[in-house]
Amino acid sequence: MPDRPNDPAHSPSDPVTVLLIEDDSAVRDSLALLLQSHGFGVLTAENGRRGLEMFRRCAPAAVVTDIMMPEQDGIGMMLQMRREQPDVRIIVVSGGGRIDKADYLSMAEKLGAAAAFEKTQIGALIETLTSMLKPRG
After folding, report:
1. Fewest Cβ atoms nearer than 10 Å: which of 31, 64, 83, 103?
2. Rounded to whole angstroms, how far apart are CA atoms 105 and 59?
3. What is the DSSP string of 70-84?
4. What pLDDT was estimated at residue 59?
5. Average pLDDT value for residue range 63-86
6. Spatial separation of the C-alpha atoms in residues 2 and 14, rounded to whole Å
7. Angle between helix 101-110 and helix 74-84 axes, rounded to 10 deg
8. What is the dihedral of CA 116, 121, 17, 112, to 10 degrees?
9. How far apart are CA 62 and CA 98, in angstroms?
10. Is the pTM of this model over 0.90?
11. Average pLDDT score over the chain
């Protein structure tokens, strides 16, 4: 099993790795740059299927995922991640879809997301990730 990025075996200077799963390439690239500018290591995937593959291979410290994506949606992917690793930290973001985005976000939290935000709530996303992943001492 690969070392987990937030394990004590890693140097404190190593960036904590976040897996970002987003089908919109412009949003994915922008969020990745923003997370990197706040000191996170970032892995990206363009849909839930690829995100699940990367999650299994890379064991990120946290996952930030969109809900509405092709091939596998964020809710189904999140449930699978939770079955495989119950303590995984997942933050869900949504820009909306067929139903109100507040309904998607509420559903994600009820199904185990650590937090859920609209894509426009970037400050809250960064603050939550930073708080969630800071070393406990």
Report:
1. 83
2. 24
3. SSS-HHHHHHHHHHH
4. 92
5. 89
6. 15
7. 10
8. 0
9. 27
10. no
11. 83
pLDDT of 79-135, one tens digit each?
A: 999 999 999 999 998 875 554 555 666 777 777 788 888 888 889 999 999 999 876
What letter represents residue 25's amino acid? S
Q: Which domains are present in the chain?
A: 17-133 (3.40.50.2300)
Give the Cα separation of 62 and 136 in Å (integer): 15
Confidence (pLDDT) at 2: 38
d(CA 59, CA 9): 14
Give the amino acid at 92.
V
Strand-pair category, 90-94 with 62-66 = parallel
Name the amino acid, one letter, at 31: L
